[in-house]
Amino acid sequence: MKRELESTRAFLFLLIVLLFLFAVAPASAQTTEERIKALEEVQRANAEELARLKGEQMELKKEATAAAAVLPTFTYRPGAGVTISAADRSWEWRISYLVNAHIYNAIDGNDKRGSTTGDIFTRRNRLFFTFWLDRGFYEFILTPDFDTGDITGQQNQSLRIHFEQLNPWFPTFMIGDRDRLMSLRGFERSSTANARVEDFNLDVLVDSNKDTLSYRGITLGWINKPVATGDFSFHVAYKPASGTTENDLADSDRKTFQTALGIRPFSREKNPWLERLAVGYGIQTDSLDSRSTRVAPASTRRLRLRTHERGSSRVTVFDTGNNAIGDGTHVWQGWSLHWGFGPYNLLSGGSLSRFASGKVGTASDGFKGVDGFSWEVAHELFLWSPKGFLTGSPTTPGSFLLGWAFNRSEGDCGKGADCSPGAGAFRRNRMLIRELAAWYFIRPAIRVGVWWDWYDTSNTPTGVQQQIGCRTRPGTDASKDCDWHTVNVGVQARF
Asked: In angstroms, rounded to a whole number, what is the distance separating the alpha carbons of residues 286 and 482?
């Protein structure tokens, strides 16, 4: 009986378990299926949300790209300044700044007579503003100048129209005040890149009837036009009147004409011995008008010999006088030669100025013809840079540049005339300049240097003799040959 009871209990327990399993299994299967469906629905919802978010992201990127496309760009290049450009280059605006701070030291000079040491002179202190329209077709230039005790205010301003954009053989048109398309001597060299302290196109033969740097006028220029293995630059210019510069207006109908040609015969060749060869020539002719009552800053009817230093240390050793040359034709000619190989550059050039004898009113000017002649040769060598010995360039930081130059200039004001600027009398003078310069480039367009100028004159004005230390006491001998030295230092930078 007991055994039957236990069997019955076991059977009932097994029956209950089987009933539970049959009851639970469908419920578990149903729950899993529902969970899978729920997860699939969430996944679909997430996929839709992800697609929506990606679409919004693409729209935002398109809007950002479109916004960036219409915003101006800002770029900076050492020596060229800051340029702000429209995205489509419909306009551009460039601002740059040039400053040369020099300390002139007249080693042999007498400070009581004007030749001092330790004077600081901002030789060039200029802001450059350039504005382009229509992808550079129209170009506007404005350059105020704030040199110490020298030129102040407006320096260059011009409008240029680049017709060469329409056809490569069309000219560039320029109308402006003290601006230029190319050098009068046909070849261009920057005064902040070469060894010479002053621009290569400046010499001590100061012919006030022309300006080697710039002028007021109308110019047509064909610049760097390729021909065969090289290229050429050529310009023709019309100027209102002799020496008209800055805000000075002409009061004479006698005009000035000027032309210059520069040729680089092998600039497109890859021959390192020939590709830097360049030659240039320029000529200007005008007719002096003594009726003019205008006394221009350039003193238009005048010829002088002066030293490079500025301020009180500058010395004049030959001078026809302010607007003293009479009526007549004046012709100026200039030429240049440049050749370079590797770290070496050779520069040479000269100028010839000739004034016809004339009258001031009804009287003779007394000069019997005024002539000036100047020639120079300069050597430059990059001795070292971080790249090694005999390497370097104006754009390589750490470059060391050494230069040596020689200049001879002569002035003659005719038989029987006096061109001594002060006491004493002589009709002609000769000045020699030997210049040794060393420059260290801190970074592109910024350099520091020292230069030694050794001057020699064949006829030295008596007042100048005391100023430069050639004579300690007043004298009357204006034919005395004198030599003197200046050792100057400076920093030159363009941002």
From this structure: 35
Query: Could you tell me the pTM of the whole model?
Result: 0.81
Angle at CA of residue 152, ends 160 and 203, nearest 5°: 75
With CA atoms as reference, report the closest residue to 484 among 105, 108, 116.
Answer: 108
**CA torsion angle 304 308 311 312 (round to 10):** -80
Distance CA 286, CA 241 (A): 8
Determine the 3-state secondary structure of 60 from DSSP. helix
Contact 391, 343 (CB under 8 A): yes
List all residues 6 or more positions away from 292 whose beta carbon is below 8 Å from its beta carbon: 241, 250, 251, 252, 300, 323
Contact 109, 314 (CB under 8 A): no
CA–CA distance from 228 to each of 9, 243, 264 (Å)?
Answer: 119, 37, 11
| DSSP-derived secondary structure for 199-253 | -TT--SEEETTS-SS-EEEEEEEEEEEEETTEEEEEEEEEESSTT--TTPPP--S
* Predicted confidence pLDDT, tens digits, the chain (495 residues): 555 556 666 666 666 655 555 554 555 555 777 776 776 676 777 777 777 777 777 877 776 666 666 678 889 888 889 999 988 888 999 999 998 899 998 888 777 777 888 888 888 888 899 999 998 999 999 888 777 665 555 667 889 999 999 999 999 999 987 777 887 776 655 555 677 777 544 556 766 655 544 567 899 999 999 999 999 999 999 887 665 655 566 667 778 888 999 999 999 988 999 999 999 999 988 887 777 765 554 456 788 888 888 777 788 899 888 778 888 888 889 899 999 999 999 999 888 989 887 777 777 878 888 899 999 999 999 999 999 999 999 889 999 999 999 999 999 988 778 888 877 788 899 999 999 999 999 998 899 999 999 999 999 888 888 888 887 777 677 778 999 999 999 999 988
Alpha-carbon distance of 105 to 118, in angstroms, equals 6
Rounded CA-CA distance 493/174 in Å is 28
Structure tokens at 445: 């367009």
Spans of all domains in the chain? 29-70, 100-121+185-494
* 3-state class (DSSP) for residue 93: strand
The span from the CA of 278 to the CA of 336, in Å, is 8
**Rounded distance between C-alpha atoms, residue 161 and residue 77, angstroms:** 24
How far apart (Å, rounded) are the C-alpha atoms in residues 39 and 107? 95
72-98 in b/e form (b: 16+ CB < 10 A) is eeeeeebbbbebebbeeeebbebebeb
Tokens, residue 96: 């740059």
